[in-house]
Amino acid sequence: MLITIPSVLSKDEVNQVRAHLDAADWEDGSTTAGPQSIEVKRNQQLPAASDAAQTLGKFILQKLTADPLFISAALPARILPPMFNKYEQAETFGSHIDNAIRVNPLTQERLRTDLSMTLFLSAPEDYDGGELVIEDHYGTQTVKLPAGDMILYPATSLHEVTPVTRGARVSSFFWLQSMIRSDAHRRILFDLDQSIQSLSTTIGSNATETVRLTGIYHNLIRTWAET
Ligand code: NI
Q1: What separation in Å is there between the alpha carbon of 157 and the centre of ligand 1?
Q2: Which pLDDT band, with edges at 50, 70 and 90, does 103 fall under?
Q3: Pick from 181, 190, 173, 205: which is nearest to 70 by CA?
Q4: In angstroms, what is the span from residue 28 Cα to ligand 1's centroid?
């Protein structure tokens, strides 16, 4: 499932992050491409080891892990440090699937990429093209979100970024390993959690039915989770 997490960053926070990014030194994105994706990847990236990437990445993770909708949808076990890319002047990233296993460059820890994230850092009116196109079970989804919003999607999906024909598209992109490996199980837990949240406001979090459903939620996590 594709889930939009709105307002991970406020407009002010986007402006602050962009001020740092716009002053940073970018490198050719092909330096980190694998043998297949090097054929289709034309963009710019912030070096992962740079101060800017590390400081801004930590800030984004702080905001994200405090977001209840993100936690409910992703149930993250481990999150890779956010990376940053920029597309301008016909730059593009053709159709591909991201690597299944990635190494955290800061800790050398290996993790399985269950979910991919793109946090948009350019306002949609500031560029043309640059849509994130994701092949989903339900068809092809075209994603272009307001600056500060994030899309969360299964890393098993074929996806591409269409050529930018005007302006610049800046974003942060990264991956996580979920405690729940199966996308279908994660979907059930997300729907159940959202229902429990809504029941908590209508009939109360201590109502018998809410307590029972909360118990079911935790017991399903106990059955499916890898920690
Ligand atoms: Ni990708």
Answers
A1: 9
A2: very high
A3: 190
A4: 16
- Give the position of tokens 């959202």: 194
Give the Cα separation of 52 and 45 in Å (integer).
12
Q: pLDDT at position 60, please?
A: 98
Which structural domains are found in the chain, ordered by start? 3-178 (2.60.120.620), 183-224 (4.10.860.20)
Cβ neighbour number for residue 97 with a 10 Å cutoff? 15
Q: Picking from 59-63, 136-140, 194-198, which range would have the lowest pLDDT averaged per residue?
A: 136-140
The alpha carbon of 91 and the centre of ligand 1 are apart by a number of angstroms equal to 14
* Cα 220 to ligand 1 centroid, rounded to whole Å: 31
3-state secondary structure the chain: CCEEECCCCCHHHHHHHHHHHHHCCCEEHHHHCCCCHHHCEECEECCCCCHHHHHHHHHHHHHHHCCHHHHHHHCEEEECCCEEEEEECCCEEEEECCCCEEECCCCCCEEECCEEEEEECCCHHHEEECCEEEEECCEEEEECCCCCCEEEEECCCCEEECCEEEEEEEEEEEEEEECCCCHHHHHHHHHHHHHHHHHHHHCCCCCHHHHHHHHHHHHHHHHHCCC
Residue range 46-69, pLDDT digits in tens: 988 899 999 999 999 999 999 999
pTM (two decimals): 0.94
